Amino acid sequence: MQHPDDRELLYLFKQSDHREKAFTGIIKKYQEKLYWHVRRLVVDHDDANDVLQNVFIKVWNALDNFREDSQLYTWLYRIATNESLTFLEQQKKRSAVSLSDVESGLSNKVIADKHFDANKLEWKLQLGIQQLPEKQRVVFTLRYYDEMPYEEMSRVLDTSEGALKASYHHAVKKIEEFIKNH
Amino acid sequence: MDRNIDIQNELEEISAFVAGLPSQHPYQVDASYWDTLAAGVAAQIHLQTAGNVTYSAPPGYFSNLAETILSRVTHADPASANEPEHLVLPGSSIMPYEVPAQYFEQLSNSITSRITRQAQQAPVVQMKPKIRQMAAYAAAAAVAAIMVAGAFLFTDNSESYSSLKDLDVSGSVARLSEAEIESYLNSQPASLSPVKEEESSDMQAPLRNMSEDEIQQYLQENNDPAEQPVKGI
């Protein structure tokens, strides 16, 4: 499906008559990419849906102030990442458990998925990803699944490219070790 | 789906094992989800916007409000002519309350006179300078006493004790001549002299009256096994 250009969508959004139509266009264009990014971080579909709805509500409220010198795509990923991490942080506080318990909670969510198959490598990889520290988890999924260039990732996560490369390197090594030992 | 060649090469450099893993994640979602998401978000936004305003006014209410009020004020109903004069209309700066006549003219005088009266009722008594001086001396003496007591209690006196410990008494006595020791003992009071012969002999008197068998029997009865003589001694 062919989606309108970002500039065109932003221009339409600023016209009060086309505001809602333009916003629906933005949702349609980015919903799948953002959903899978959020889903890989929070694992559960219902949680991903809640987070994604909050992301688009924030986008609606803040789009008037969006500076067009940065890409809409990068800006949306930034909001989606922050919203996902905030969601995980809130879950941690609500259950009053340590970070490692939240990670094991995410692993349990992976296992609880109705399509989970412990013998399949793609599921083992998901379990390996959930063992990673938060930052490495985000960097790994953005690079491995979204194939995001380090330059863009640097703008999304506000981190230097060197630090991102190091995080990705550590994440890959840890995942290799995890899968070989499980 | 093939992975981007740069990302694949980077992965193979880090770990050939991970580079060989599937590039697709295993999660799934209903295809209908994508059709309903935008509508769901729009509904949320409308709910949020609706939640901000609880009550609503008829269209054009606020733009006509000022004119409506002014027209009511200027074309007042003759029936309301009998209302009290001090009834205040909205926006008027006239206060509806009244104060007694000459209240503000007399206010400053009444406050001054109240202050003067209060000052006369409760005179401040100054302490005499001599008594104040003595009290200061007493306080200084008390502070000095506390400091001296504190210094005495908390100063380390272990130095004088250690100097006593270092004294070599037996060495000093050994260096004395017999004549010096004798003259020192003679000069000391009688209470320090050794036990007299008569007193010590009194202790042996009951033993003299006992037979050897009785003594042996006493020793056997009061024998403590722990005090058995060591063999060979």
TrEMBL record, chain A:
Pfam families (alphabetical): Sigma70_r2 (PF04542), Sigma70_r4_2 (PF08281)
InterPro entries from the UniProt entry: RNA_pol_sigma-70-like, RNA_pol_sigma-70_dom, RNA_pol_sigma70_r2, RNA_pol_sigma70_r4_t2, RNA_pol_sigma_r2, RNA_pol_sigma_r3/r4-like, WH-like_DNA-bd_sf
Domain RNA polymerase sigma-70 region: 27-93
Keyword Transcription on entry: yes
One example of a Gene Ontology biological process annotation: DNA-templated transcription initiation
CDD domains xref list: Sigma70_r4 (cd06171)
Residue stretches in coiled coil: none
GO molecular function: DNA binding; sigma factor activity
Keyword Cell cycle appears in the UniProt entry: no
Keywords: Sigma factor, Transcription, Transcription regulation
Family from the record: Belongs to the sigma-70 factor family. ECF subfamily.
PANTHER family noted in UniProt: RNA POLYMERASE ECF-TYPE SIGMA FACTO, RNA POLYMERASE SIGMA FACTOR
Protein name: RNA polymerase subunit sigma
Source organism of the structure: Deminuibacter soli
TrEMBL record, chain B:
Bilayer-spanning residue ranges: 135-154
Entry keyword Transmembrane: yes
Keywords: Membrane, Transmembrane, Transmembrane helix
Region ranges (Disordered): 186-233
Name by which UniProt lists this protein: Uncharacterized protein
Native species: Deminuibacter soli
